[in-house]
């Protein structure tokens, strides 16, 4: 039985303020992060530091907003299937609003099977999605305020009871804010909604999903703004205090104002919400990008007291009613905190009398505006009272996110969220994220003027208590940040698509006051089309290039020291060798040059230490691994000191210099080699200094060092560049494709072309001089794929596929006595050229071993297998004949590659094919007979075109022939997963910004 298991996903977070949300539920399934990546949603587990699943394609454009529908009630969770993290909502640039449900059991499975159960729509991109749990009927409340453990936020403002009905608020660039009623009990058993249509018309009041019950998911309220006040953010919260239960809907707008609406949601089951505009909060001078509600912790105990006075007076006699704190983040570089409360009729009358006394005393006060009239929805002459609590100034660029710290604390350290208690200090704390590359944690000053929360006519003094962030210019700022369920970890997503994670756990009485935050490794990935992928010759690491102008190196961290946490093990990004100014189009990891491998240069043991990349420029660039990377790679293999590979890598690291690295000049595109002053510690125990006590940004620079655990984003962005050793000039157009010979002596490259002259393939001598050897004509348009025959074939042959619908074969005119991969005195020449497709070709690749076959694929939705006939084994091909054509695919086939190993049963060839719609399938056969062996599940596949397929050398075993005599040695990861399982490893790169590694089991 053949199967393919997803082992690793690397995908960056979309560049949107509300694109990520951290679930705060306890128990199995809780504590996960959902984030938008391209047009899908990825589910990320911070405890394991890995993406566990993507939900599959549903949106037709990038996801811009994600929100969890959370539960903190064990009884209701049991009714929903016994787990947490079962519901979430997403909004996209296509205007769609989707409600997702997890259908597997989170207590026993990690499959994460998500289905869309309801759909809504806006006429323009969705800017924010937030959710609020309906209370049992929405009538007069017995409780005065929400539970302190439920801290609403703009991304997920949820207060849970047994009703199972939620309100969702969505803001959109079509100048509308819509409120939706979702009955989860009615939606859970439903089948997935039909595929989305191209229409962007807003839904009717009868409901957006015709398959759902009439009242299961429907729009119950819509408000419209002017174009200059386009909604950019939204937040929902229950208004505390005695009296009718009312929801406060806050809308942040592009004109800098925050509009508050009071909503009576008691009749939502009938499809309507009675709402009124209650207030407009003015003060910001630019877009309000985020809003977050929390209860005013200073009066929560009074508000929850069943014996509290109806007039809202506190025990100390002050005229404070239970209220909410609303934080707003704006592009005017400030954040503001507003207090929102219910002012009862007696307070309104008292305030009017006081105003009349003042007016009688001061003539100019007679010109003041009259007080606002009582609210129709609050009754009894009450109205909504608002005032500015604090103006937070400290950022130097746009403030894009605001999040309140939960007022709870775990009874244990780390990520264990199963047990919680109230924090001893109930002070509210606010975290803001800015494009100035910093996060600031604000706390009210104990010595500030006025009480916490402010009195009438007074405001609290809020101070910057802790500053987090990154000093590297490559970060380019943070879009959003969030706390975990217990407020002991902070997760932020940045412009580069990476997550930054800091923890604040107090261990053995250390870290008094909780002011020290430690960075940890977190999920990261590309944020644009991933165009290419190439494996190290030993299968230890995978190199990918993207249109986000970076190359990234992924490796399986097995751990080299005893104190490595379990969350550090598995596939991780180990380096970011190139940060460029142009989109990366192609990469090729260069195997060690067989001519240079001897006792003093154990290149074969080290694997690839050089790679070549081409971008949207005319120059090829050559990079060489620095010493710190080689040392870190040795640490990642495990069994330090027992493996010949580890010893070889450590020796190579010392030879290259463990304190060597590279840096990118501010106005340059070339990585310049550097060496740390005074050297660097090979252990690399802590390359990142902890934050200073006063929270300033003057931290020491991160220098290249050998690491003993996977690097966090701060190290990846600053200290893992590879020095550029050579530029190769010759092409007249932007580079398109590059390939390296398995002997490490030749490199072939081709560029974008509109003529035969520009389409010629350039051959380069890999080594110290990197001189151009010659050009190979044949193609008339872009060459889209280059592939040298494999190491087991015993022949020299270069396969080239072109957009002109032809494939071409090149071979040496006179095979050299020096071995394979040599240019020779007479060079190479075109030996065969055949038309391989009715439309443009996209990819082609050789079969392994002695098969003497190759496959091609293209826009005509077909994969063809070709036989190469020779009169004498190893000689120049005589005839190229089509051996088989696979069944027509549903969309264009954009990538195809053969596995380096045959199947164990029957010795058949294995061929992987990727399509334009993101599908990945594996076929087995030989000659004219081919059958499909496995098709990757839709949730595990890409959601856009597969750009590249790369099989892991040696089937992912990582073992070489020379290791058979060394029982202790293991010069590579034992398998793709690092768990000892069997299977072949195959990596795919997609236009959906993701890199995926599968473990394929074929009989």
From TrEMBL:
Identify the metabolic or biological route this protein is part of.
tRNA modification; 5-methoxycarbonylmethyl-2-thiouridine-tRNA biosynthesis
Short name of any one Pfam family annotated for the protein:
WD40
Subcellular location(s) per record: Cytoplasm; Nucleus
- Protein name as annotated: Elongator complex protein 2
The keyword Repeat is assigned to this record = yes
Entry keywords, A to Z: Cytoplasm, Nucleus, Repeat, tRNA processing, WD repeat
- What segments bear the compositional bias annotation Acidic residues? 961-973
Residues of the region (Disordered) are: 133-159, 188-215, 297-326, 678-699, 954-987
InterPro entries associated with the record: Elp2, WD40/YVTN_repeat-like_dom_sf, WD40_repeat_dom_sf, WD40_rpt
Record organism: Micromonas commoda (strain RCC299 / NOUM17 / CCMP2709)
Q: Where is the composition biased (Low complexity)?
A: 145-156
Q: Which domain of life is it from?
A: Eukaryota
Gene Ontology process terms (BP):
tRNA wobble uridine modification
Principal place of residence: cytoplasm
Question: Per the record, GO CC terms?
Answer: cytoplasm; elongator holoenzyme complex; nucleus
UniProt similarity note: Belongs to the WD repeat ELP2 family.
